[in-house]
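Morning!

As promised:
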Amino acid sequence: MINKYSEFFKMEIKEDLADRSRFILWIISKPISMMINILIWTAIFSNSNSLSIGGFSIGQTINYFLFQAVFGNIIFNNISEKIGAKIYSGELSTSLLKPVNFSISMVSKSLGGRFFSLIYESIPTHAIAMLFFGMQIYNKPAIILSIISLFLGLLINCFFSLSWSLLYFKTLNYMPLERIKRFVIQFISGFYLPLNFFPLALQNVLKFLPFNFLLYEPTKIFLNIYSFKEILGVMLIQIVWIIVLYGTFNFFFKITLKKFEGVGA
Amino acid sequence: MEIITVKKIKKSFKKYTREQGLWNAIKSLFQREYKLVEAIRNISFSVEKGEILGYLGPNGAGKSTVIKILTGILYPDSGSIEIMGYVPFDDREKYVQNIGVVMGQKSTLSWSLPAIDSFYLTQAIYQISKKDFEKNLNELTELLEVKEISKTLVRNLSLGERMKCEFINCILHNPKIIFLDEPTIGLDVVAKEKIRNFIKKINKERGTTVILTTHDIDDVEALCHRIILIDKGIHVYEGSLESLKKKFVSYKDLTVEFEKKVKEIKLDNCEVLMHKEFKAKIRVNALKVNPTNVIKKLIDKYPIVDINVDDESVESIIKKIYLSKNDK
């Protein structure tokens, strides 16, 4: 059983390895975006009267964004985009011909790609962030726990994307929906702004949604804000969300397939 | 033994239509007209184990839809299907373990990797034991002569090379039934020949049941034990190629060579297609006269060196069936 899906995991890594130039370009582009973020937030803090925004000091804020730049990419995946393309080209038919669980095979591929990116994207950028941008590590176990939590966040994002992609069965033009999904997720998962910068009412609403468990909560684990017990609590909620979204996807996937028309030749 | 039983399946699609023009394009944003297209109307058939069945039909006849329903991709609106004890669309995951599918227009191989990597993925997802896998892979690569090819990136392969790899990828797990949707489309003569021999061999040696859709009549003549013709969602003919010929052949062509110059040929119920001094081509209306009688008469009347008899081509018979159904 596991052997079946580990091959998808490996397959994605092999496909990533086929593209050598991407690795180099990634290393070059990362410091630029890190620097811009640091400049923006130093400017904001130097123009504000208070020493902290939303409870974050300047040091914490900068570390927040450095963590996003180094490890944040773990949770982002292109599952829904891939499914959209498969529906559009008719390639979904060939995926359905394989004796595997569709969602788990897609998620295994994603896990493979992201796990590999941890090695070839995150570790080099982490070195750059430490050497040139003064990234701080508050607590060594916390960084490992935060990465584990990020992978749980990736699973939440995978199953959410799978569920969202069922909408693409209704329309051949999936790109606008894909863009909406991407932007909204980046916004309410804390990629652009830490969520505690938002109005309290919005923060309270977001507590009942899975998205702050993608990036925001794992980053807080990294910033050493939580006690060990609280960290376990965060991970438990993450696991609950994974199960809920997995169930949601499977329920609607069955219904959707009944209406699937198998476009393309 | 029946391996596939299909009873009264139906499937219709909703299609959106509009008149041409910019105004109608804008109007269609707010108001859409849908047309219900019946892709398949009441189809029943069965397939015996070890059979090669040709599933033919013009474009848009419903062939691909039937194949997709049989392979568990689509749900039929009504009717029942049983294949090897499975209901394809309900037991999809378990069922597809036992079938192989090659679609001429779609790839199951990973584009950016060598084909061999895709073969190993197949090994893992079908859980083929290492011994079986290696034996099978060696046999197949030798049969199709792709030993070297399987190590180059799939995107760099020619169509013929890629199709051979697709075949290997679909047969590695020893499926009991293989579905081939236009497997020889776009291939050259040599590659076609190779693929045909391969299908024949697999069918003979492994007893694999083959369902084949194609537009190439040569494929049918070389391979199929039985054919089904489908048009507009219903079966219009089911039976062997020979009985199709017997039933629908309306003429035979005689190519005659004369010893001396012949000025005029006169025969009842015949049409002279071509007449040169020493050679003639005559079409005999087989519905009205027995062609053997015509040949006898020819020999009696004219000084003949050689006679060649050709049947009406299967292609034109099938064309006739399609056209006659469309008239109704």
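Chain A has one domain: 2-259.

Hope this helps with the figure draft.
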